[in-house]
Amino acid sequence: METENKISLNSGQDMPLMAFGSSTFPPQPVERLKTAVLDAVEIGYRHIDTATLYQTEEGVGAGIKAVLESGLVKNREQLFVTTKLWCDNAHPHRVLLAIKESLRRLGLEYVDMYLIHAPVTVAPDITYGAWKKGDVFPLDIKSVWAAMEEVQKLGLAKSIGVSNFSCKKLTELLAHAKIIPAVNQVEMHPAMRQKNLREFCNKKGIHVSAYSPLGGKEWGFDVVLGNEQLKEIAQNKKKSVAQIEKCWNNNNMSHNKIHKLTKAIHVRLDMRTYTDSDA
Ligand SMILES: NC(=O)c1ccc[n+]([C@@H]2O[C@H](COP(=O)([O-])OP(=O)(O)OC[C@H]3O[C@@H](n4cnc5c(N)ncnc54)[C@H](OP(=O)(O)O)[C@@H]3O)[C@@H](O)[C@H]2O)c1
């Protein structure tokens, strides 16, 4: 079954390849997210992606609680939960507090994956979008990564990783790291192939996860779903562009995809089309 597709990470953990992305704008009510998570798990997703920035940790947590109560999965271990450290907490002394707050909102004792959301630091408690000159600093990679390592050692996250890190930023991190990041989550799709980054991460044993696999339609980009070449391939193969992208993203490379799927019809379509026969 599709949902059994997993990747073994350098941390020793197995991560389900398909993830259900929970970012929504504007943020959705807790009840709406709870239903979305229930729907996603019911049709086969076992990996849920959230972040402090998305303001969806509470809704995802409500969804996970409902999933566990419903018996859709046997226990917490059958789910894989990723959340992320936002930039205003990317200060060495704030990392531990930040993960504890995330766990409180999620209602969990641990997450499976904790990522540094971006290689940037913002002055504490400045709302995203209200950043002014002087609020944003380069990330203190050495100290913040050391705090992330502490999070893993304390068992608050089974694995740790990064997001939106370039080869240069990863090189800087690896120069100090005692724990190699398990994952680098980046935008990746046929219009943004990340070839150099994938080669680099592959050599270092870092798994690359693809976010916005459909090009981030919601942010006004049409580079995947509106791509003429992909449309032609889809027409020839009698598939949708989303189906073709899924084959490119999964069959040609070894990384997982994080879809934002707020409509059950897309969720169902995604699970149904996640097969080699669609290649
Ligand atoms: N680490 C980071 O910095 C970062 C950044 C961005 C995103 N992410 C993660 O990645 C997830 C996905 O990001 P994204 O929203 O940019 O992803 P995306 O998958 O490229 O785009 C999602 C959009 O595609 C549509 N869609 C989904 N399945 C479809 C299908 N089968 N056919 C046609 N359209 C379809 C959805 O439409 P409907 O709304 O109509 O369902 C949704 O608006 C987020 O939820 C988040 O978890 C991480």
From TrEMBL:
| InterPro entries in the record | AKR, Aldo/ket_reductase_CS, NAD(P)_OxRdtase_dom_sf, NADP_OxRdtase_dom
- The protein's name is NADP-dependent oxidoreductase domain-containing protein
The GO terms describing molecular function are: oxidoreductase activity
Q: Which residues form a coiled coil?
A: none
Site residues (Lowers pKa of active site Tyr), renumbered to this chain: K84
Origin superkingdom: Eukaryota
* NADP-dependent oxidoreductase domain location: 19-216
Q: Where's the active site on this chain?
A: Y54 (proton donor)
Q: Where does substrate bind?
A: H117
